[in-house]
Amino acid sequence: MATIDETFDSNVAYLTINNPPVNALATAIRAGLVAAIRKAAENPAVKAIVIIGADKTFVAGADIRELGKPLQRPFFPDVLAAIEALTKPVIAALHGNALGGGLELALACHYRVALASVKVGLPEVTLGLLPGAGGTQRLPRLVGPAKALDMILSGKPVDGRAALLLGIVDELAEGTTGADLLQGAQTFAHKMLAERRRATLVSARQDKVSAVDPALFEDIRSKNAAKWRGQLAQESIVACVEAACTLPFAEGMAFERERFFALKDSSQCKAMRHVFFAEREASKVPGLPADVKARSVRSVAIIGAGTMGGGIAMAFANAGIPVTQIELGAEALANGRAIIENNYATSVARGSMSRDKAAKALTLIKGGTNYADIADCDLVVEAVFESMDIKKAIFRKLDAVMKPGAILATNTSTLDIDEIAAATKRPEAVIGTHFFSPANVMKLQENVRGAHSSAETIASVMSLAKKIGKIPVLSGNCEGFIGNRMLYNYVRECDFLLEEGATPWQVDNALKAFGFPMGVYLMRDLAGLDVSWRVRKGREATRDMSERYSPIADRICELGRFGQKTGAGYYRYDGRTASPDPKIEALIESVSRDQGRTRKPVSDEDIVMRALCALVNEGAKILEEGIASRAGDIDVIYVNGYGFPRYRGGPMFFAEHEGLATIHAHIQRLYLEQGQLWKPAPLLARLAKSGEGWSAGAASPGSPGRNTGVHQAIVKQ
Ligand code: 3HC
Fold it and tell me: What are the φ and ψ backbone dihedral angles of 291, each rounded to 5 degrees?
């Protein structure tokens, strides 16, 4: 129930915004505020008004679900204008989150009192939007255009102390609870009344926005042009803050409103709203019994102190969870430790982590060589070399030493979870936790359930991932799981495009122009080409010889070119700077010749469509098989683990946006041209015909699916 709860106590009216869980400013809340404000204004007994949020938070902004529909009256800027125009002092009392429209509401009030723990910010840019209720006009008037741009463009919130220093809040309330805040707001209100102080309206302040050097805006535009490439919101944000410095307040508000609507109705905002909700939905596992409880994980062991093991250890330590790393010998442990220390030092030097936090995290990471030392840990994550034999041997050992109830996880990115689990006598406790490199930074955690993973094991790793700040997605068990299985097809088609007429730099540039931070070949050069070469060689004996196979990557490795680390791969390197290499072009042309192919020009558009269709066709199979629960889960994986541009919503959103019939027709054309590898996924063919979206085609809990699916009967331990 969305309500404004009104109470009154010694001259002060308290309006409590009550719309759990985040007190979003839904239509009912805006209407309730207008009515409550009017009542308080008309009541002669009310001398001051406090606006506060119910429970643990102020307001997390506009109701994002309403942004996809025509907006309803009362419009938000009008509500804020009415609040600002009141002659009685209005005090915003802030705790929890005061974000987006929440901060805009606070800025329209005459004073702001906050708990030190509050987070205040304008994160609209993360939704492809700009603050549309005066945020771009009022915040620069309080903190100046440079700081306002910093906050609005980054979307990052600041805490109460920083907000006080910046002048966003007027006073910090003592204490930590909602009751403390209420008390602080009450005291503040009475002080205002006793002193008969009249606030200067934020909209009337001019000192920070007059005589601003226009170079500030040009500078920001030119410095960020490459970073903002393809995105709409950032330029509009700069234009609005510039307008705050050049136009009267009312005209600035009109300018902001116009820009806000253009963004709100854009496909970029739609895509980013989709990702916002998909990220939250992904952590909910369909079919998991409601009464299943996640185990509390108070200590973690990591097997392996290499790059992945170290990153995973840091991810847990950063969240305050003690970690023990196990290695074969002291030297490997010391090397791993040195890398971790170096990573923390870099974070501190960059300012992304405080010295104290880094020092505390480091004390939580210990090393050892003896499995007996980790027997009492609640969770162990194996993160060693990608070899089934080695992993099985480790899991046999873990099974022998770990306490009953411990969760045994593997960080494999491709191997069969069930085969690993079969090495133990407790397959119900075994699960995949696929982290992405660098694991202390990347948000995605692709958890992979085996046939016997118990509900409790699944619930525990999903919940733990959130605790350590990751975005968890649950995948079924198949080769490559969701992310790498799709990636395999994407890379394969890029390789075929090379044989047909494209160059690595053309493919990379086309994908970059679409919005990927990096194309396929720069990415492969960065990761190193030798590991996948070894994997391919291992599979050579069992490869289906009737299937098209591109030998380009193998030929490049045969030249000893393993990517950036050897100074050459697909590109030539001078340090980290890549340049196109005529030798590679000649190598690719010779492969085309060997295959009897006539090379033809390939357009950038064809490159992008072919690469994306490869993702979508495999994604549709993954969805139909129940390997992914929802199309949104696939999008979350691609946006957070594979650099798919958030403002395009992920591959499955992209396909739906283009029209599943259009994508199907494209894939059908490729099937006729290229053969079996492009056979359209049956689900895609069906939906293209019926005109429905992905949600009509996902395997539901209890559906037949394959026994590898994410929905197979969830075993309660
Ligand atoms: N509108 C609608 N629903 C929202 C919401 C919002 N602004 N913010 C959060 N929710 C929902 C989530 O979808 C989730 O729903 P679910 O339980 O059904 O999955 C629930 O509230 C809890 O959210 P989280 O799981 O994200 O909870 P956390 O405690 O982890 O995080 C938060 C809280 C930091 C507030 C985070 O939810 C958040 O960042 N919210 C969005 C903030 C935002 O972007 N605000 C700007 C909105 S646009 C705007 O204000 C336009 C204005 O300028 C005109």
Answer: -90, 5
Which residues are known to be catalytic? 104, 124
Check: CB of residue 325 under 8 Å from CB of residue 309: yes
The closest residue, in CA terms, to atom 39 on ligand 1 is: 60
Residue 693's alpha-carbon distances to 173, 303, 371, 483, 696, in angstroms, are: 50, 43, 50, 21, 6
CATH code matching the domain that covers 3-264, chosen among 3.90.226.10, 3.40.50.2300, 3.30.420.10, 1.20.1070.10: 3.90.226.10
Residues 6 or more apart whose CB falls under 8 angstroms from that of 378 comprise 295, 296, 297, 298, 299, 300, 405, 406, 407
Q: What are the percentages of helix, strand and coil residues in the chain, rounded to 5? A: 50, 15, 35
What is the C-alpha separation between 482 and 332, in angstroms, rounded? 32
Q: Does 130 sit in the ligand 1 pocket, CB within 6 Å?
A: no
Q: Show me where the domains of the chain are located.
A: 3-264, 300-480
Mean pLDDT, the chain, whole residue set: 95
**Residue 60 Cα, ligand 1 centroid: separation in angstroms?**
6
Distance CA 483, CA 488 (A): 9
What's the pLDDT tens digit per position in 682-701? 999 999 999 999 998 776 54
Q: Which two tokens stand for residue 639?
A: 């946006």
Is residue 707 pLDDT above 70, yes or no? no
- Tell me if domain 3-264 and domain 300-480 are identical in fold: no
Question: Does ligand 1 have an atom closer than 6 angstroms to the CB of 284?
Answer: no
Which CATH class name applies to 300-480?
Answer: alpha beta
Q: What is the pLDDT of residues 283-330, one digit of tens each?
A: 999 999 989 999 999 999 999 999 999 999 999 999 999 999 999 999
pLDDT at residue 672 above 90?
Answer: yes
Decide: 283 in ligand 1 pocket, CB within 6 A.
Answer: no
pLDDT of 547 above 70: yes
Q: Which pLDDT score, from 0 to 100, does residue 711 have? A: 55
Dist. CA 233–CA 238, nearest whole Å: 9
Ligand 1 mean position to 498 CA, how many Å? 44
* Partner residues linked to 435 by β-bridges: 445
Residue 408, strand partner residues: 380, 430
- Residue 14, C-beta contacts closer than 8 angstroms, at least 6 positions apart: 6, 7, 8, 49, 50, 52, 182
Decide whether any atom of ligand 1 lies within 6 Å of the 63 Cβ: yes
Distance 574 CA to ligand 1 centre (A): 45
* CA-nearest residue, atom 15 of ligand 1: 280
Give the Cα separation of 380 and 383 in Å (integer). Answer: 10
